[in-house]
Write a structure and sequence with these properties.
By secondary structure, the protein is mainly alpha-helical. It contains nine helices and two strands.
Length: about 230
């Protein structure tokens, strides 16, 4: 084997997911499950608090997707629809996993889940203020718009659950059909990649903390004025 070929096949662990991205992912999983459970148990106050926390996390992730670590940035993983379709055409082909971050199809799934989470949490925050008569905007929003927001929250929950199921099915499919373990890197942050692939740049944890504090402040303001 030539030296260049040996270097290309040699693998080493690479940190592909930073701590803030992984923490967001698993806290979101816990909060979505908690929101579902508290809704079924009619624990309204806790349901609202979980929704507000989830909204703060989503806002943080949107900002982290703009200025955070390389693999967390939208510009690094949002491919064209054509690229996503080309990727899906090889879904059942077993091949080495050399993706540093999200694959082209996975990037679109991330956008879908974030959009659904944002719609669900914002609509829930408005509805809580409307019922509790807390938000000044609740009284001036036309009834037709208020009804539309209510519908978004009611039916959007089922769309979100459907997207979550699709996401889980995709993880299982990649594991079975392609032999790619997408779960372990999101737990450990590490992935074995060829030595020729550079490790992605990581942003500061202080920046993540600052953005999270800013996201919390936004949610507090929305809870007061929405």
């Amino acid at each position: 084997m030539e030296p260049d070929q040996a270097a290309a096949t040699r693998e080493r662990p690479v940190r592909v997911w930073d701590f803030p991205t992984r923490l967001f992912h698993w806290l979101t999983v816990a909060l979505v499950f908690g929101a579902w459970a508290t809704d079924r148990l009619n624990w309204s106050n806790l349901h609202v608090r979980l929704g507000e926390t989830l909204l703060a996390l989503v806002l943080f992730r949107l900002m982290w997707g703009c200025v955070g670590s390389e693999t967390a940035r939208f510009r690094s993983f949002v491919a064209s629809p054509a690229a996503a379709l080309r990727h899906l055409r090889h879904l059942f082909r077993r091949e080495p996993d050399v993706e540093v971050g999200h694959n082209p199809a996975g990037g679109w799934m991330v956008l879908l889940l974030l959009a659904l989470l944002l719609a669900e949490t914002l609509s829930g925050l408005y509805l809580n203020n409307d019922i509790a008569n807390e938000g000044p905007l609740s009284e001036i929003v036309p009834a037709s718009i208020a009804n539309a927001i209510s519908a978004v929250h009611s039916y959007g929950w089922y769309v979100l659950l459907g997207a979550v199921v699709l996401h889980l099915c995709a993880i299982a499919t990649y594991a079975i059909a392609k032999g790619h373990n997408l779960l372990r890197p999101m737990i450990t942050g590490l992935k074995r990649l060829p030595s020729t692939i550079a490790a992605p740049a990581r942003a500061s944890l202080w920046l993540a903390a600052l953005l999270l504090a800013f996201a919390v402040a936004i949610v507090v303001l929305l809870a007061v004025y929405l």
